[in-house]
Amino acid sequence: MLFRQLFERESSTYTYLIAARKGGEALLIDPVKEETNKYLQLIRELDLRLVFAIDTHVHADHVTGLGDLRNATSCVTIMGAQSRAECVSRKVQDGEIIRIDGLELRALYTPGHTDDSYSFVMSDRVFTGDTLLIRGTGRTDFQNGDPEAQFDSLFGKLLKLPDEMLVYPGHDYKGWTVSTIGEEKAHNPRLQVRSKQEYVEMMRNLKLANPKLMDVAVPANLSCGLT
User: Fold this and answer.
1) Minimal CA–CA distance to 225: which of 87, 31, 63, 11?
2) What is the pLDDT, as a whole number, of residue 227?
3) What pLDDT does 139 receive?
4) Residue-wise pLDDT tens digits, 170-189
5) CB neighbours (10 Å) of residue 182?
6) Domain map (residue ranges) of the chain
7) Is the domain 2-218 a CATH 3.60.15.10 member?
8) How far apart are CA 103 and CA 136, in angstroms?
9) Separation between Cα atoms, residue 41 and residue 215, nearest integer Å
């Protein structure tokens, strides 16, 4: 398998390129609009054909590259069924399988950060978007976020994956690149709560400022970044 973890500094966003082999089909997870030319260059250099571009949710801190990638490559754009971004080509349901050249990603509905948040699970790794971060969890105070739903997504779904499964988040602000489910269970301070209510109270008292691009990014991303 070909796998690349790409980083956009302004929003601290990770984008993931996955392909079964050089010369084969590829997909991108959470592409950033300003990085589109970089993605296209790498796809050309690896002799890949981009067939899918996926967003884990409607982002509030950067503008998506879905629309530009679809225009450049005719790839299928994908988001979860709950997304209000009507511009995407395909909306996946919880449990639906995305296949490229024999590789499979299973869509896992993990609301809480937003009401349209999905994670994507492979045999040895999970792409958690903004639901589970390395030593943190995504905020729940806008875009229909819900700390109770996030608790259920974390403790009822993601943390039930195998301890050795690799965790690749949508962002990191401290230089972490990868973790595992077992590491996060043991060392993530937000996961050491004793009850759902304790988690809810913690998340409701974070008092974070809104992302600086929120008023621009959310409307743009509902149009796949093409406004």
Assistant:
1) 63
2) 74
3) 96
4) 999 999 999 999 999 999 99
5) 15
6) 2-218
7) yes
8) 29
9) 30
